[in-house]
Design brief:
197 residues, 6 helices
Length: 197
């Protein structure tokens, strides 16, 4: 079964479905037992412990006792002030242009968008560069995990094989048990992140 759509720039995107599809039904979290909910989601105490660890890590970074940790760059005082200034500048640019257009009797949202893009271009480049660095590091970790898994399967052929994602999380937990949780907890979905086993 094929579904084809055309995007704004006239490129066709196609989604294909296998003729034989297997579905797996998953309980809604409202139907979890208390134990299942406790095992799947962070508690208030877990969140407080992670926040306390992040605060102590930031203190160590600010004191120069620890290098910057990925995911915490925007949590330092200087980075927070810089980000606020960039947001203020972008917002002011857009609002000023809207006001100018209103006075002139114009309505050109594309020009407003291009003004915003000019202001945010530096931030976009920096974010793309960080994303590329993260991708390279993830590939390196994945490569190490695949080699590790191959070595393990050669030395223990009856051992259960794990996906690279499972191995990556496991290897991260071995090196620093709080680091994956810390990096996951910094974001808008922090209450929905599962506990590490």
């Amino acid at each position: 079964m094929n579904t084809t759509t055309t995007t704004k720039n006239n490129t066709k995107k196609t989604v294909r479905f296998n003729e034989s599809v297997r579905c797996k039904f998953v309980l809604h979290n409202k139907n979890y037992t208390e134990e299942e909910h406790s095992n799947a989601f962070m508690s208030h105490e877990d969140m407080q412990a992670i926040k306390a660890d992040i605060r102590s890590t930031l203190r160590a970074i600010n004191d120069g006792a620890m290098p910057m940790q990925r995911g915490l760059e925007s949590r330092t005082r200087e980075a927070s002030e810089r980000r606020s200034a960039l947001k203020h500048h972008a917002r002011t640019t857009v609002l000023d242009e809207q006001a100018d257009q209103k006075v002139a009797g114009d309505h050109d949202p594309d020009f407003i968008a291009s003004m915003y893009q000019q202001v945010s271009k530096k931030s976009q480049k920096a974010a793309a560069m960080r994303g590329k660095m993260d991708e390279e590091e993830a590939e390196m970790i994945r490569g190490e995990d695949i080699i590790s898994r191959q070595q393990r399967s050669q030395s223990h052929p009856d051992c259960e094989s794990y996906s690279p994602k499972t191995i990556s999380l496991a290897s991260k937990l071995r090196s620093n048990p709080i680091k994956p949780l810390k990096s996951l907890a910094v974001g808008p979905i922090r209450m929905f992140i599962g506990k590490a086993a």
